[in-house]
Amino acid sequence: MTHSIRKAVIPAAGLGTRVLPISKVLPKEMLPIVDKPAIQYIVEEAVASGIEDILIITNRGKGIIEDHFDHAIELEQRLEASGKTEMLETVRSLAHMANICFVRQKETRGLGHAINCARSFVGNEPFAVLYGDDVIMSDDPVCGQLCRAYGAYGCGVVGIKEVTVEQIQRYSSLKVSPLRDNLYQVTDMIEKPRPEEILSLFSILGRCILPPEIFDILDRTAPGAGGEIQLTDAMKSLARSQGLTGVDFIGTRYDMGNKLGILQATCETALKHPEVGEDFRRYLLELSKRL
Fold it and tell me: Exposed/middle/buried for 196, CB within 10 Å: 0-12, 13-18, 19+?
């Protein structure tokens, strides 16, 4: 019988060097998109996909992430005393979104090493990985799209998108063949390919479902690019031995480790925001006249 996906891991231990200097004091996962930190959108996506237990992998200096998903007793008391019921419920709900726990990656040794820190949390069942850098907005949660593909095919799943030739050389390139609709079989991949090594313009972007066998593979995976344990290297082994399902997901991805991505996420989310959307739209229209 195919497992349903109950657990998710969110690696949020990166240093955020591409968005310095703000990430020196504020984790990039806590950068605001209008009125919520980026990581809250990721947790909300997991919960909307049926995930019950979430492990967020952090490192030193990221305790503010834990605080965000905890009770703030003094603030809650003040809101209650002021009669600000709706705001109170918004703040309180953060502590009850899911069963959220945390573990620290003591050394920055790559995404594969970070995922391996989740072994005892995951146990012997498949699990979702939602990259802490990637906020993906969709009416149909992307993690849920991948969970359905896992239910259909019973093997690891990766969220994929076609990118440009320039981008593929910074990402991973996948060898794919069509299955049906927006689903593909993935049988090989290469990290940061040279132009002559490109397998396709499909790359893994921000989401995957992995079987528990990934941990033993990670144990055997030698350091790769940058001297770090690369999750892609372990997934390559899965693709070659078992095959993976690629989901060309429906949704808009924002790279929150990139300054332009942060601005795009903020701008496009603000336009849809029930509180400020119309005013912001008018502001942009006026601003565009001066550009």
Answer: exposed
